[in-house]
Amino acid sequence: MKRRINIPDRDYRISPPAQNSKGDVFVAGEYDYATSGNTYLYRVNPDTGSVTKILTLPAGEFVGDYTVKVDDEDRIYARSNQKLYCVDAAGTLKWTFTTTPPPQLAGSRQGANIALSWSTNAAGFNLVSVTNLSSTNWTLVSPSPSVVNGQNFVTNSATGNAKFYRLRNP
Fold it and tell me: 21: which of 43, 98, 124, 164 lies 20 to 30 Å off by Cα?
């Protein structure tokens, strides 16, 4: 959850704090976000109150709620909805990891059929179905999807027994 702190002439949105073994506190946040669009990782010395920007997280790459954690070896992990950064206490970037949200499955009735669609941007997802939700025997749906305007489409009959659909990434 983001917290908003108002300081005269400044506006910050920051993550909950995380502390390393030396007592330094780390937060990810936006400072003058409207100007730069960037988010920053800050180190705060609780004894002196000094704040040091140790890493700039590029605009658009670090969106949503922020979380900062510190592990037993004092590596700092800054996470947003779609990106994870690992840095050392000096701000040296060790690695990044990008998550891709799963595609959304959409369905619409078309006469006696159901048309199902999902984005082709999420490679590796297959449409599977089952007639009983307590079953673990989800089977690949046929026919194979056709692609139209960046969307996978499958049309199946909507008559007969109920069917449940989902996207699965093997």
Answer: 98
